[in-house]
Design goal:
- The chain is of the alpha+beta class and 891 residues long.
- It contains 29 helices and 28 strands.
- Strands 19, 20, 21, 22, 23, 24, 25 and 26 form an eight-stranded mixed sheet that branches.
- A hairpin with a 3-residue loop joins strand 1 and strand 2.
- Helix 6 runs antiparallel to helix 15 and helix 17 packs antiparallel against helix 24.
Length: 891
């Protein structure tokens, strides 16, 4: 309670000070009047009153000791003194604050991205309680899909459950066609999540059959123009009128990460309207989520649900026979507080390694910044050696002096932390607007509590690291020399230990960052120069999706594709156009299949797997993929379907399945274990290998089937124009919209842009690492410059004597360079093993360059040496301009 009272007094400190001053003045006036009544003259009465009251300064100090804890008052005094010191040294303060701002800002920015992408939880109440049910099938991994019948049984267990199913459909909202992402949920879904509507209401238990929808706040703002009368408005989804009854809270976009749900509908109504396809109640298309109680472990929860699962569903009895899942399975419970990850587009898995590598890089950069600031503080403390010696000689303890230096460090860290927070906010805002693939949409520009706490922790670490070296230097201060004639404050050996170690640390850390940046830059160059197997220049691509539309239900996808091709090829300026279920690097719907070669032993596992892609004639010519043997596919005919389908294969496929044989005319089956009912495929041509999946990945074995022989609700139109791609793109979009409005993208994109976008992660990491490396080199230059400048000034008399005895400028240059290059050499010797370890740590992110590349290490070392040489120019010039007479006379 006494401390609470003192804190209250401290808050009223200024008011109490004024009251104390008025009270002392009142006592003085009353005593003076009393002495005047006794016959004293006014001057004698004033002097007598002062003698009677005693030392008023001492009385004020005693009163302040009651109001304010002495230690806190000392800290406040040190804080005011440090602030005045910074104002008197603006150059030092600017360099120190900028160094800390760069280090703290870079760490805060990268941590903010890591938090948004890897650590952020779903914006729902008590997100840590959300779990997802999964089935573990022996030999086949984990399956997240359940049937509605399985959900009905599991819902009778001890855990509150809800289900949803994700889908896409065509949308018409006020005459603007497009595609919408839909979550079909049961009536318990929003109640389980604990969400409340931003506008209107959410879907509840009584809405199972109603053709209604709840839209997200983002969809309401972007697609519906923030319509204030949105409640009751009708939109058309997959040609079905749907009434909007509510808007979800801001930030909510479904449970899947990183995909975004736009519209939520009742599950039963969505299946009745054929917006979500369900063959029967045993079709495994729903995802089951639940909410556990606090302290309930995932294993214990799985055990509680295990009995229900084994009785009803473990053998697959409630799963549709068409899926063939009749093996025993076990129930798993997974934490989904950070969202249900997408298996095909795992953004966290794609960016986790590179983000943590960048986090390690900015941590190293922060150490270099702290070393630079510590060097500045060390030089400043030496310049103030007389002041420190006077304080110690007058009785101040070393602890008290160290505390003052730590307060100065804290002041720099506080200002640097604030500036770093602003810098991080600006950097994340720039990155969120940049085109960094899936990462840009996930970056949050608003600092949250976790980011602020991280910034505070980093600033505190900077206080300790930056203030430690000057504080240790002060504890070794010699009182005699500074008070005698202002000579050296600390022994020569102590100088070498402190500032030399700091420069060595900066050089080693800079070499580490520069070598890492060089590895990433070389990786980016190798990927940009790699052979793709196709020509992306001036090729256009456009996605056409008829999935979950009336065209798919009526089986019109093949006819629709043919009509689109006819119209696009008729556009002036289009040299050729073709459809494919997958376009190289651009994306699409490629699929894996097992292959059995006629007359050869059946293959199993990965040996039998290959990719297959559906294409139309002219696909390879449009993309610039050469046909090495045979011919292209023929246009579909109206005659009877041949027993053997004609296909093309790539070189990898031919070498894998027909080694040493001519693949033309060979027959294989695309089914497991050589099933006699499977389609037989006859090879009519061999095409060159191309990188379809990823720029990093080697070409995979692939075969290409005609689009006309199947039902392909997802196709990519590739176009080779003969005039400006932009002008042709608008014509292509209009032609597609004329055939089937709302099923194509607004405008085609360049394949070259898709290739560039595929390298966005590598470009992002290379640019940031390069910035960190440049900043580290600048810090090395500043640190080495400051140390050499101080040593030249310290050894000015020695250099003057050398020059007076006949030493020329070259010997002085060698003297200064020997000191600097010795420190740089030791730093490089320390940094080389660290750089090799860093290369090994980022080996999985490299392409075409070894983590122990001698060339990269040589380039990084050369940059560090050149930077150090540039930093030596001014100290060397100052050393050779020393006048021997002036140097001798100064002593």
């Amino acid at each position: 309670m006494r401390w609470l009272r003192r804190i209250r007094y401290w808050l009223r400190f200024r008011a109490e000070q004024a009251e104390l001053r008025r009270e002392l003045e009142l006592h003085h006036r009353l005593l003076r009047e009393e002495y005047e009544r006794r016959g004293y003259t006014p001057a004698d009465a004033d002097a007598a009153a002062r003698r009677t009251m005693g030392n008023q300064s001492y009385m004020r100090e005693e009163a302040r000791g009651v109001w304010l804890p002495p230690r806190l008052e000392a800290v406040l005094g040190d804080w005011r003194y440090a602030w005045r010191g910074l104002r008197r040294a603006p150059g030092f303060a600017t360099v120190a604050v900028l160094s800390l701002a760069l280090g703290i800002g870079a760490n805060t920015a990268i941590f903010g991205i890591i938090h948004s992408v890897l650590l952020a939880r779903l914006p729902v109440p008590a997100a840590t309680q959300l779990v997802q049910l999964q089935r573990a099938i022996p030999g086949k991994g984990v399956d997240e899909s359940f049937s509605r019948a399985e959900f009905d049984v599991l819902a009778t267990g001890p855990l509150p459950l809800a289900m949803f199913s994700s889908s896409f459909a065509s949308l018409d909202a006020g005459g603007v066609p497009g595609t919408v992402s839909i979550d079909a949920v049961d009536g318990r879904y929003f109640r389980l999540l604990g969400l409340h509507a931003e506008r209107g209401r959410l879907i509840g238990p009584g809405d199972e059959d109603a053709p209604i929808a709840v839209v997200t706040e983002r969809f309401w703002r972007t697609r519906l123009n923030a319509d204030s009368g949105v409640i009751g408005r009708t939109i058309t989804i997959d040609r079905q009128p749907i009434t909007i009854v509510g808007v979800t809270p801001a930030g909510y976009a479904g449970l899947r990460f990183p995909s975004i749900s736009d519209v939520t509908m009742p599950y039963r109504a969505a299946t009745t309207l054929q917006i979500v396809r369900e063959r029967d109640a045993r079709s495994p298309i729903v995802t089951i989520v639940g909410r556990r109680t606090n302290g309930q472990s995932l294993d214990a929860l799985a055990g509680e649900l295990g009995d229900v699962w084994r009785r009803c569903c473990a053998s697959g009895a409630l799963v549709s026979a068409s899926n063939g899942r009749t093996t025993q399975s076990a129930l798993r419970v997974a934490d989904v507080s950070r969202g249900i990850p997408q298996r095909k587009f795992d953004v966290r898995g794609r960016y986790a390694r590179i983000l943590f590598a960048l986090m390690a890089g900015v941590a190293v950069l922060l150490l270099a910044c702290c070393a630079n600031v510590a060097n500045l503080l060390l030089a400043r403390s030496r310049a103030r050696s007389s002041e420190m010696a006077v304080r110690l000689a007058l009785g101040a303890s070393k602890r008290r002096v160290v505390a003052q230096l730590m307060v100065e460090s804290a002041q720099l860290a506080l200002i640097g932390g604030g500036a770093g927070l602003l810098l991080a906010w600006w950097a994340t805002a720039v990155l969120s607007r940049a085109r960094i693939g899936d990462l840009s949409s996930l970056i949050s520009t608003t600092p949250n509590a976790s980011v602020l706490a991280f910034t505070a922790a980093v600033s505190l670490a900077c206080v300790i690291v930056c203030g430690l070296v000057p504080a240790i230097s002060v504890t070794r201060t010699d009182l005699v020399s500074p008070l005698g004639h202002g000579g050296p404050r600390v022994s020569r050996s102590a100088h070498g230990v402190f500032d030399g170690m700091l420069v060595i640390a900066q050089v080693a850390l800079a070499l580490l960052l520069v070598s890492g940046a060089a590895l990433l830059v070389q990786t980016l160059r190798n990927l940009q120069d790699t052979a793709l197997g196709f020509d992306p220049a001036e090729r256009l691509a456009l996605t056409v999706e008829t999935r979950h539309t009336g065209y798919e239900r009526q089986g019109m996808t093949v006819q629709l594709a043919a009509e689109m091709l006819r119209r696009v090829n008729a556009i002036p300026g289009v040299r050729s156009a073709a459809f494919g279920s997958l376009a190289p690097v651009y994306g699409g719907r490629g699929s894996l299949d097992n292959v059995t070669v006629r007359g050869a032993p059946p293959l199993t596992g990965d040996d039998a797997q290959t990719w297959f892609v559906a294409v139309t004639p002219g696909y390879f010519a449009t993309l610039g993929i050469p046909i090495l043997q045979g011919r292209d596919l023929r246009a579909p005919s109206s005659g009877p379907v041949p027993a053997t389908r004609e296909v093309l294969v790539n070189e990898r496929f031919a070498k894998k399945f027909f080694p040493g044989r001519d693949p033309i005319g060979q027959v294989f089956q695309d089914a497991d274990d050589g099933d006699s009912t499977a389609t037989e495929d006859r090879i009519v041509g061999v095409v060159g290998d191309a990188k379809f999946i990823d720029v990093r990945s080697d070409p995979q074995p692939m075969y290409f089937v005609p689009v006309a022989d199947g039902d392909w609700p997802f196709l990519v139109l590739v176009v080779r124009p003969s005039r400006a791609a932009g002008a042709v793109g608008h014509d292509i979009a209009r032609s597609i919209a004329a055939v089937a409005p709302g099923i194509g993208e607004s405008d085609p994109g360049l394949l070259s842009a898709a290739v560039k976008g595929a390298l966005v992660r590598e470009r992002f990491s290379a640019r940031l690492a390069s910035i960190f490396g440049v900043v580290a080199l600048c810090l090395v230059a500043i640190g080495l410059y400051g140390v050499l400048l101080y040593r030249v000034a310290e050894r000015g008399r020695e250099i003057g004597i050398r020059m007076a005895l006949g030493a020329d400028g070259r010997s002085v240059v060698r003297l200064v360079l020997r000191q600097s290059m010795t420190l740089v050499g030791i730093g490089i010797a320390v940094g080389v093993p660290l750089a090799l370890l860093a290369g090994r740590a980022v080996a999985s992110q490299l392409y075409g360059v070894a983590p122990y590349s001698v060339a990269v290490l040589a380039i990084a070392t050369s940059l560090v040496v050149v930077t150090a040489a540039v930093a030596c120019v001014v100290p060397v010039r100052r050393a050779i301009r020393i006048d021997p007479l002036v140097a001798l006379r100064s002593e």
